[in-house]
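Reopening this one. Same input as before:
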Amino acid sequence: MTVKEIMAELKTLGDPQIKSILQKHGVREPLFGVRVGDMKPIQKRIKKDYQLAKELYATGNADAMYLAGLIADDEKMTLADLQTWVRQALSNNICDYTVPWVAAGSPYGYQLAMEWIDATEQHIAAAGWATLSSLVSLRPDATLDMAALRSLLKRVAGAIHSAQDRVRYAMNGFIIAVGAYVIPLKEEALATAKKMGTVTVDMDGTACKVPDAAEYIARIESRGALGKKKKTVKC
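Same output, byte for byte:
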């Protein structure tokens, strides 16, 4: 399939109501308003395509950018590719999900995450923390730098309440991810959650809420899913 063909198909799948909902959740124009479920058949047809993913992302259309993440061949993504993607990830769904998913599947995920979390730009810093969350949910504990993760837990505890909204939300997600997927650090993640207390984020008038990290980890444990790594973070 070509970019022109895919964009035409996405346009036919657009729904004004979905577009309105997405915009309320921080997704920026241009976009058609395509349900993720309606992108899945396109993803299934394409599977992975490194060049096509880059071309779709470069359109700047939020629906196309999201689809680009679903079909990206993460292992082929270069540092330059990922740096370009994160700079252009101005919509919340792209900086919170698309870019972190692809970065985590690339050879440069940890390197870039540690760089991005120091960025002054809200969307880049949020993408960095979300990339770290994806990494700990995917990688075996034996391959993780536990000392670095402990240091990051402490950093979140001390900085979360002064961080920008999207960064604060992503930091909270990182605490949940560590507690849920890194068994050796579960208690430290819970202690961090307790130290943080209630985390508030301006959700732009939507009904979305910030998950309570300790409660969320407890729910995962009650399902017997604690420490069970994901095969993919893309959805």
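So the earlier flakiness isn't reproducible anymore. For the record, The chain has a mean pLDDT of 97.
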